[in-house]
Amino acid sequence: MHLALFCTEAGMHAGGWRHPDAGAVRPFDLGFYRELALKAEAAKLDMLFVADKLGLDDLYGGGVAATVARRPNARPEPLTLIAALAGATSRIGLGATVSTSYAEPYHVARMFATIDHLSGGRAAWNAVTSVSDSEARNFGRAAHLDHASRYERADEFIDVVRKLWDSWEEDAIRPDKASGRFADDRRVHYIDHEGRHFRVRGPLNVERPPQGHPVVIQAGVSGTFQDIATRQADLVFTVQPDLDSAKRAYAAFKAQVAANGRPPGSVKMLPGLMPIVGRSDTEAEDIRAELRALIDPVAGLTFMSGSMNYDLSRHPLDGPFPDLRDVITGSRGRFQRVIADALERGATVAEVGAAYVESLSFAVAAGSPKTVADILEQWVTEQAADGFVLMPPYLPGGVDGFLTQVVPELQRRGLFRREYCGATLRDHLGLDRPASRYA
Amino acid sequence: MHLALFCTEAGMHAGGWRHPDAGAVRPFDLGFYRELALKAEAAKLDMLFVADKLGLDDLYGGGVAATVARRPNARPEPLTLIAALAGATSRIGLGATVSTSYAEPYHVARMFATIDHLSGGRAAWNAVTSVSDSEARNFGRAAHLDHASRYERADEFIDVVRKLWDSWEEDAIRPDKASGRFADDRRVHYIDHEGRHFRVRGPLNVERPPQGHPVVIQAGVSGTFQDIATRQADLVFTVQPDLDSAKRAYAAFKAQVAANGRPPGSVKMLPGLMPIVGRSDTEAEDIRAELRALIDPVAGLTFMSGSMNYDLSRHPLDGPFPDLRDVITGSRGRFQRVIADALERGATVAEVGAAYVESLSFAVAAGSPKTVADILEQWVTEQAADGFVLMPPYLPGGVDGFLTQVVPELQRRGLFRREYCGATLRDHLGLDRPASRYA
């Protein structure tokens, strides 16, 4: 079983930052993230990975007032954050979210290759396509790219990045002071990429990363996502609200991986999971109820508006939630079921805003350490997941119960490593190290 | 006197990596850079700053063969490198070179703001405009932007970045768990920038950096550079081969700063200086001669071709150096004097290639610790410099003589700090902390 820790500035539950056991939010304090990374490393987790958006969630009401006033919404830039953590940790993988919609492949290839070197082979890139006009407006555009264009761009972007990582073969650098020969130029290659979105000649000016390629993560639920991820990803991070849907998604995804000529085990599937751990099942449910009571529905709607790329303030809080399934242009796939459920229940806008941001449709595992371990064991045993992306409700304390009580229980059951066996993140994940296509 | 250490993968002297006292080149080893940063911090230097180019110097001969085979030419990405060093150091400033020609202001503002937070106010940005077609071809262009366009873009780019740093006023984030109020939205501002090169709405999604604005460094010699830097820069890094030219440049620059309505002390001028320290002046000259003998003229020409954006392999090695003063499109200003000198001396192409890369036209201070300290004292006393960017001939050992013998001599003379007095790089440099324009 593989376990990654999803790292945000204040945890994933919309009420989390207000919980009495949550520390003061310190979104820009290296000490906060270092402490979290070291805890996760002590528990032998595969990876810590950092979420991102390229702007504030200011669509709701057309301004920053609602979002900035009501919830943590500013965050460190992920590449520089995981680079800072590379020096503070020694074994755990470090992932950063970087959008393909507003970046250049040469910069992205180079930064991840550099972090892979500085960390000794522990870097991972969560490639996303961004969701909202708020992000587009920080990069010279009036509106975000449409769904098809941004996925097409993402597909080519990842391809270019992987070519750049291949542009230096293994051991090209062999300095010899006496002769003055520094490297073997026959092992350094132009990529000469000419595509619809990018023209990149290469070579990269960073030698081949320790992992060959840093691990590529993709997240999503749409068919377009699945088409790309089954070809391009090393790990997928998915939204599955329950075991049955997770089993169906796992089977379909792995079948498509195989159909693309890749071994099913070469892409790991990790659904997000919010653990709420108590001494007993009852205590965990009490914590869950306490957290739920701290949710501000409007704060929830600011988040939802950003993810949907649609201003929900157009609809009164106490009116019925509208049918926006064909209207939204942000994370479309992710909201189809959320909206259908809301319509079926006749829920109000405020109710949906509050309910959605409890766990953002990710499964919640609330219970005693044994109960939570049972849930994880069942999902993995019944082929619903290769592991989980843990989404703590609040941070830093909200993950302690999991790390100190659930992880040892999983270790006792032989479901999770007691020690790191390899040096790189690919080793932790059981992923092969790719060879250079130019070798 | 202010002292910055220029950090490259193998030192600045073209023969440096081959010197017997130079360690093995480890361009991607965090330990190499950490050791260097800690040594510089122990000597109380203001800053370490990292050079960059966005590709290999492959213009010479139209391929990677000459450059990759003959000299260190691949390097870590600077932002991620200084982020990694932020966690390993506690007082020294950390600067990274980032080109304005192939980046987005939102990303750059955000990364430097993040590093400023993670380091507790020690970040600096060396804003450059790039020089060669080799770089352009990694970013979808056939050729580099012309001189005027790239400086115009740089000017607007820096302006946008500074606006984004201002978009959060001081202390906007004031989380209150009880009321659910997270931040004061009246202190968070759209920048609504609409310029010739960029449209950026903001706000940044990072709160105001500890320094207000991270320190902005610019490097150059042209009139266009001076026009922008006297308005925009906090520190300039210049090429001055000797005391007289440095005094003239210093006076002219500070006069223009004043003419722009800024106090002359609000922009520090630090010429680059290559220190070669021996136990005696004779020993230092011997080391200099030893290093010079290790230069490969063709390796020098690959570097020069990249900086000129002109393929010097068109001219035979033993033929006269051609008059390229109106032909080159890279670092134009910097090569006017180099070429004039070559023509006057009737030097061959190989001779110029070898001579230029000894110190890249930066002044060389070779001598005993006392002699080198005398040179630095004279430059500062006679108003030729506010300090220096130290360019060690090789690394990591090539800076030890300076740090352990010249710095103590400067301290004894009362010319350099014995301890850090403030917490931030602006404190070290004696620069004011700017207020937000939106406050």
From TrEMBL, chains A, B:
UniProt cross-references to InterPro entries, sorted A to Z: Diverse_substr_monoxygenases, Luciferase-like_dom, Luciferase-like_sf, NTA_MOA
Annotated GO MF terms: monooxygenase activity
Domain (Luciferase-like): residue spans on this chain: 16-380
A family per Pfam: Bac_luciferase
Keyword field: Flavoprotein, FMN, Monooxygenase, Oxidoreductase
EC number(s) given by UniProt: 1.14.-.-
Top-level lineage group: Bacteria
Family: Belongs to the NtaA/SnaA/DszA monooxygenase family.
Protein name in the entry: NtaA/DmoA family FMN-dependent monooxygenase
The organism of origin for this protein: Azospirillum melinis
